[in-house]
UniProtKB/TrEMBL annotation:
Organism in which the protein naturally occurs: Nitrosopumilus oxyclinae
Domain Blue (type 1) copper: 121-198
Cofactor note as given: Binds 1 copper ion per subunit.
Stretches for region Disordered: 89-111
Main subcellular location: periplasm
Annotated Pfam families: Copper-bind
PANTHER family: BLL1555 PROTEIN
Protein name: Blue (type 1) copper domain-containing protein
Record-level GO cellular component terms: periplasmic space
Length: 199
């Protein structure tokens, strides 16, 4: 920046000197007596080069100042290009609120005959854990009709929920609003049992 200021000062002085020279030459021409000079034939010499003319050294300094300014600008551009980008602060992604969910339980094919109770596969899954407010949907993929009845074969229906008959390819859903452990069974095929644990 200092090189640019020096160049501007030198250039201003050069302009002032040229202006003074023109003013002096103008006054001299205005006050000079007029006379006619005899015609003289003389060989014309080559014009002086810029380095020999008035103010050439000042012009050279101004030019050098311009070069310095150009170099400074190039250096600043280089510095700007080498700057590392500022890392943006990553905002934490807000998780979508989790609302009530629906869970599926299949009533598998072939459960209308005894045997599924030995592997606890009469309802798939037989025991499910959910949260209060969630819904369980039972889907009958068997060819026979079944029920999903709250309670147990030994104690009978609890009265909390009962699907009545769920035909083949039909479904039954129930929403559990309160925490607790809920056992259920099929009234038509009492070997079929399952449970829902609500937290």
């Amino acid at each position: 920046m200092a090189g640019i200021d020096k160049a501007a000062i030198v250039f201003s002085i050069a302009i002032a000197l040229v202006g003074v020279g023109i003013a002096v030459a103008g006054d001299a021409a205005y006050n000079a007596p007029t006379y006619t000079a005899p015609a003289v034939t003389k060989e014309v010499s080559e014009p002086k080069t810029q380095t020999e003319s008035f103010g050439a050294d000042i012009a050279q300094k101004v030019k050098t100042g311009d070069d310095m300014m150009e170099k400074t600008v190039k250096l600043e551009d280089k510095v700007k290009m080498e700057e590392k980008p500022i890392a943006k602060e990553e905002k934490p992604v807000a998780k979508a609120p989790t609302g009530p969910k629906t869970h599926s339980v299949d009533i598998p094919s072939g459960t209308s005959v005894p045997g599924c109770e030995t592997s606890n596969a009469c309802y798939t899954p037989a025991d499910i854990k959910i949260k209060a407010g969630d819904t369980v949907k039972w889907i009958n993929v068997d060819t026979a009709a079944h029920t999903v009845t709250g309670g147990s074969p030994a104690n009978g229906p609890s009265g909390v929920f009962d699907s009545s008959l769920v035909m083949a390819n039909a479904e039954y859903a129930f929403t559990f609003d309160k925490a607790g452990s809920y056992k259920y069974f099929c009234m038509v095929h009492p070997w079929m049992v399952g449970s829902v644990s609500v937290s």
